[in-house]
Specification:
The chain is of the alpha+beta class. It is built from 11 helices and 15 strands.
Length: 462
C-alpha cells in the first residue's frame, strides 16, 4: 500500500474531543491464513504485482448511529440513518463507471456482516460504511467482467484484489476503533473517571465530617474497609486471570518450541544428542513450573527484581531463539534490589511485553531482530524494567494502546488486552506503566526507533 491517510472530523459541538489525522506509507499487504504444514495461523503477503490490476484508490466513510452522538447535531435521526443505509456498502468503479452489483445490499462481497457477527464492536458492518473502490480500465485487464455485467470473474486476480481491499479496510478499522472508543468514553457510556478506591476515600472523609455518632462512624468505616478489601481482592483476581489467559498463548508457543527441539534430539540418537535431550526434558519441567507460577492465587511479597526478570526471560528463551531474535540485557550490571509486588503478575507483565515485541518484529519482517530487557534506577525512588525492540515503534497512540480491545494488529490477530492488563498490573502494585522516549533512559542506539515500554516499581523503603 503506497499511501494510507485517515482523518477523524468531530462535529463542532464535540468540544471534549479533537480532530485526528494519521498517515502511513509503503505498508506491506498481508492476510492471515492457516498453514497446513505447521498447523498454525501465519501471515502471508498479498501480492498484486503478478496481475494487471493497476493502481487502486479506495475511499471509506464510516458513521456512528449512537443516539447520544447523533443528538448533538442531527435533528432528523431516522432520516440520517435512512440516507446512510441507502448509500451504504462498498461499491466498485472503473473509469467512473460502476461495476454492479458490488455494494448492493444483496452482495456482501467483502463478508463484512459475517465479520461483524464474529467480532462485534471491533469490525464494521455494511450499513455503517460508505465505500468506493476506483480502478483504471486500461491498467486492470486482469479483472474480467462477467458476460451478464454483474461483477468480475472470480479468478486469481480477483481474489488478490478482494483481499487487498479487505486489508485496506482493516487498516481503516484500526484507526476508527481509536476514535470510536474516545467518542464512547466522552458521549455514550460516560464511564466513571475516578477509581473506586479514591471514591471510598472521599466517602471516609464525608463520614468523618458529617457523622457525629461515634459508634455509627466506627461501623461505617469498618464496612468501607471490608468493601475496600473485597474490591482489591476482586481486582487482583481479575488481573491474575487475565494475565494468565494472555500468558497461556505465550506458554504454548514456548513449550512447543522445546518439545520440537526435544524430538529432534531423540531422533538423532547420538550420545551428545541424548544428553541434550535430557537437559531439554529438565528445562521443560522448569518451564511448566514457571508458567504454573502465574496461576498462584496469593504471592504478593518481597522479591528480588533481578530474579523476576530472569524468570520472565527463561519463560521466552526458546521463542526468542526460534524467531532469530538477539536478546540484549544489562541486568547483571546491577546489584540485587528488593521490591514488594506480586511475583506472578510482574513476571506475566514482562512476558507479555516481550511477546508483543516478538510478534511485531516478525510481522514487520525486521532484519537482525533485537529485544532489549534492561534494569535502571535512573528514575528517583523507582526500579524500572525496560523492554524495547528495534522495530518501528508503536503504531497507535500509547494512551489508546492501554485501553481494552484497542490495538494496531490486523483483525483476528489479537484481542487488545496485553498492554491494558500490563497497565492494570502496575497500577494495582503502586507502580507505573510508562512509554518513554529514547533519550529518557540510557539505551543502546539499536532501539532508537523501536517500541520502548517501562515497568516502574516503587523502591522498597529501607
Amino acid at each position: 500500500m503506497s499511501e494510507f491517510f485517515y482523518k477523524f472530523t468531530p462535529w463542532d459541538s464535540m468540544t471534549e474531543i479533537n480532530h485526528r489525522n494519521h498517515k502511513e506509507k509503503d505498508i506491506i499487504l498481508k492476510e492471515q491464513i492457516f498453514d497446513e504444514e505447521t498447523k498454525k495461523k501465519i501471515f502471508k503477503e498479498i501480492k498484486l504485482s503478478p496481475y494487471d490490476i493497476g493502481e487502486i484508490q479506495i475511499y471509506f466513510y464510516a458513521y456512528s448511529f449512537e443516539s447520544n452522538i447523533l443528538k448533538l447535531e442531527i435533528d432528523d435521526k431516522q432520516g440520517f440513518k435512512d440516507y446512510v443505509s441507502a448509500n451504504s456498502g462498498v461499491k466498485v468503479y472503473r473509469d467512473g463507471l460502476r461495476i454492479y452489483d458490488y455494494g448492493e445490499k444483496s452482495n456482501d462481497w467483502l463478508g463484512l456482516d459475517i465479520r461483524r457477527v464474529n467480532r462485534p464492536g471491533i469490525t464494521i458492518s455494511n450499513n455503517q460504511l460508505i465505500g468506493y473502490v476506483m480502478l483504471n480500465r486500461s491498467q486492470s485487464s486482469a479483472l474480467v467482467e462477467k458476460s451478464n455485467r454483474e461483477g468480475f470473474v472470480e479468478n486469481e486476480a480477483y481474489e488478490a484484489f478482494e483481499k487487498a481491499v479487505l486489508f485496506a479496510l482493516q487498516q481503516f478499522e484500526i484507526q476508527r476503533n481509536i476514535d470510536k472508543s474516545n467518542l464512547n468514553d466522552k458521549y455514550v457510556s460516560k464511564r466513571v473517571k475516578e477509581p473506586v478506591i479514591r471514591r471510598l476515600s472521599d466517602l471516609r472523609e464525608t463520614i468523618e465530617t458529617k457523622v457525629k455518632d461515634d459508634s455509627l462512624k466506627l461501623d461505617l468505616n469498618r464496612e468501607i474497609a471490608r468493601i475496600e478489601d473485597e474490591y482489591n481482592d476482586m481486582i487482583e483476581t481479575f488481573i491474575k486471570s487475565a494475565n494468565a489467559g494472555i500468558s497461556l498463548g505465550v506458554a504454548i508457543h514456548e513449550i512447543d518450541k522445546v518439545v520440537d527441539e526435544l524430538n529432534r534430539s531423540l531422533d538423532s540418537r547420538s550420545n551428545q544428542a541424548l544428553d541434550h535431550a535430557q537437559d531439554l526434558a529438565k528445562r521443560l519441567t522448569e518451564l511448566v513450573k514457571g508458567y504454573s507460577m502465574l496461576l498462584r492465587s496469593k504471592d504478593t511479597g518481597i522479591y528480588d527484581i533481578k530474579a523476576i526478570i530472569k524468570q520472565a526471560l527463561f519463560n521466552v528463551d526458546f521463542r526468542l531463539k526460534a524467531h532469530g531474535i538477539q536478546l540484549i540485557s544489562n541486568i547483571e550490571q546491577y546489584q540485587s534490589s528488593k521490591l514488594k509486588c506480586s511475583r506472578s503478575i510482574s513476571i506475566g507483565a514482562i512476558t507479555n511485553l516481550i511477546d508483543n515485541s516478538i510478534w511485531w518484529l516478525g510481522y514487520k519482517e525486521i532484519e537482525n531482530k533485537k529485544i532489549y530487557v534492561g534494569l535502571t534506577n535512573e528514575m528517583a525512588n523507582y526500579d524500572t524494567i525496560i523492554v524495547a525492540d528495534n522495530g518501528i515503534g508503536y503504531t497507535i497512540p500509547t494512551e489508546d494502546a492501554i485501553k481494552p480491545f484497542i490495538h494496531g494488529r490486523p483483525t483476528g490477530a489479537g484481542v487488545g488486552l496485553g498492554l491494558f492488563v500490563a497497565n492494570q498490573c502496575m497500577e494495582n502494585q503502586g507502580g507505573e506503566l510508562l512509554f518513554p522516549e529514547f533519550y529518557d533512559f540510557d539505551l543502546p542506539q539499536d532501539f532508537k526507533h523501536g517500541a520502548i515500554t517501562a515497568l516502574a516499581f516503587r523502591r522498597k523503603a529501607k
